[in-house]
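Researcher: Next entry in the queue.
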Amino acid sequence: MSTLDGTVAAPDTASSSPLPLASRQDGTYPRPQLVRARWADLDGTWSFRNDGDDPAWRAGFPDARDIVVPFPPESVASGIDEPGFHPVVWYARTITRSDLDAAGHGEAAPRLVLHFGAVDYRARFWIDGRFIGEHEGGHTPFSFDVTEALAGAPDAEHTLVVRAEDDPHDVTQPRGKQDWHEDPHAIWYRRTTGIWQTVWLEAVPTVSIASLRWTNVDHQTVRLTVRTAGAPTGGERLRVVARWDERDEHLATVESVLPRHADEFDVVVPVARQTNGQAEDELHWTPETPRLVDATVTLLPADASDPIDVVASYFGVRTVGTDGGAFLLNGRRYDVRSVLNQGYWPESHIAAPSREALRREVELIKELGFNAARNHQKIEDPRFLYWADRLGILVWGEAPGAYAFSPRAVQRLVREWMDAVERDASHPSIVTWVPANESWGVQHIATDPAQQAYARALADVTRALDPTRPVISNDGWEHVGSDIITVHDYEGDGPRLAATYADEAARTALVEGIGPADRRILVGGAVDHGQPVMLTEFGGVNYQPGVQRDDGWGYTTAADGDDWIARITALYDAIRASSFLAGSCYTQLTDTMQETNGLLNADRTPKVPIEQIRRAVTGR
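Model: Structure for this entry, 620 residues:
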């Protein structure tokens, strides 16, 4: 059983058992904004087969090798360490009585839900040879009710089997930076096949809280959307009580009766404390003051006080937007100083090597002087977002791209992206959505009306799902309808970069003309409405202070550490001199395989003293 640091007393209508304090977790809970007191972590040693189909394996396979989940078989951390192609892989694990006990299974929580954080790309699942479900999409979570499959004698053991299929040559799959060549080349890295985020088991009541979503309607109003699972007996009506606290201060308690037969409903509540405009900043979430509001949400019968389900959550009070060429945080201009984060580790690939590593990643971003991260071509582990919320950085949420344009590619990316937005929309750290990057999957968007329509529709469906955040239709160039105009420019000379972004005349020439990569900035009838302009990829200066990689590269190359810092400083001086840039994003946080253009080495150690890097980034 995994436990969390800190507890809060349940509300008056709840049982006396303690709940975790959601904003003060230890970073292990895999679903940070819907927390129960108990869960069973199924990560660890599983059985593994790297083979084609064999129906007998659905009930287990005794001659398999060991793999450490959730690390992909291509990685050293998995114990398999086979970086070649893995079109089909099989996993098996025994689920025991102790797993059910750790999950909190019992009379009050009789239903068992099996969760997978992410499995790349298409997967099918069996328990004791009985098919329990399937899922497609390599970056988003899913779950199955496995109550009946795990029924039996109290001490019975059950075999869970997973078959994962990940065609390395299928470029209609949203794959991000995973290479279709056997060996990494250019800007692409080794693949991640199969399970790469936590597998866990949870016991829930017959009627339970399935999901929560927090939305900042404005600076003083928050909407809570509650979704339930399971039907109450006899058509019994349900009510929800939500209590909000910030540190030791009680902010609000709201109660609402669910409409009959409804499994989803909204509660919109003003935060009374925020009506005093002179004091509203005291509660606002920002990177400098990452204040989180804890919430306890209780599900009860409409006419009784005994709780059916109780969960802990948290949210941040903050708004984001754009106006007058600026990015706005809580209604005020905010300079976005971001770094490109590949979320890739040499020993474990896109799976973090440990839960502590996710916290350390956020800490390093802040120590380097950044207030934001662009999670590049990856839907990151929710626990990274938890630390971004708690420690305070802005995050740009980005879809991993496919490389083809076809009906199948469109369907796959839209479905997975919608799931990602739904998963992450409650995190205050996420301030911008990026469903496409550099025309990946829409390579002819400049001239093809169908590709323009797709990119425009993808941006619009993102706004429909979440109208509270800016959306970038195609990061870098060839925008068809973006709330922020973003540009990628790897010019290595500081004065030349300064000239491109100097003043309003330079802005007009840039936005209305051909951009730095010989791509138009606006296409498909897109119009410059005075949106903020950001330089969202630049830099990428190669410097290898230790062992030299023969294939290491960057967009420019420094002779030594002093030259490297001087080049980075000159680029940032150019950005600081611009009269119109609303933000920037340096490429990149760490060296990643053959890309030796990070501020940190691949092992997360700084290439020069971290104070020097921070001074170059911040100018102070």
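Model: The radius of gyration is 25 Å.
Researcher: Noted, moving on.
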